[in-house]
C-alpha cells in the first residue's frame, strides 16, 4: 500500500430524484437511480483493490453504508461552493495531510478501470498533471503532485468546455501533463448501455 498516494472519489448518496437528473428527464427518476447505483458499484469495484489510500467525498451528507466501508475508504463531506471549489478544497486537504500524488474521479464513468487509475498515478512520477478527457467535453479524472488552483477556477462546470478550459490552463502554466484515453461519462440516455444494466442485475 502506497500511503503517499491518495484517490479522491466524489459521489452522491443514491437518493431518488437527486442523482442523474439530466438522465432522469429521459428515463425517469427510478431508472436514473438504478443506473447511478450500478455506476457506484462499478466505481467501488475498480477502486477497492488499488494500492493507495482512498477517500470518498459525499455531496450532501456522509453515508455510512456497506458500499464504502471505512476499512477501505476515508469518509469526508464536500465543502460548499461550485464543483471547482469543492474539488480544490479536497485537493488542499489531501496535500495538507502530506500526500504527494493525488487523483480525483467521479462516479459517472462506466469505462473507467483500475488499470487506468494506476496509469494516472504512474504518470505523476514523470508529469505534473494527468487528466482523462470525457467524450462530452469534460473530464473523468484529474491528478497532480501539488495544488494548482487555476485548474479549478473560472470554468463552466457541467458544460462541454471544461476539458478544453482546463487543458488551456495546464498549457498556460507550462505544466508537464499526460493525457489518458478518452472515455464516455453516463449523463444522457445515449450514454447508457442497457445491456450492461440488465446483465448486472
Automatic annotation (TrEMBL):
GO molecular function: transferase activity
Keywords: Transferase
Gene3D superfamilies referenced in this protein's UniProt entry, alphabetically: Spore Coat Polysaccharide Biosynthesis Protein SpsA, Chain A
Listed InterPro entries: Nucleotide-diphossugar_trans (IPR029044), Trfase_1_rSAM/seldom-assoc (IPR018641)
Top-level taxon of the source organism: Bacteria
This protein's record includes keyword Transferase: yes
Record-given protein name: Glycosyltransferase
Species assigned in the record: Pontibacter fetidus
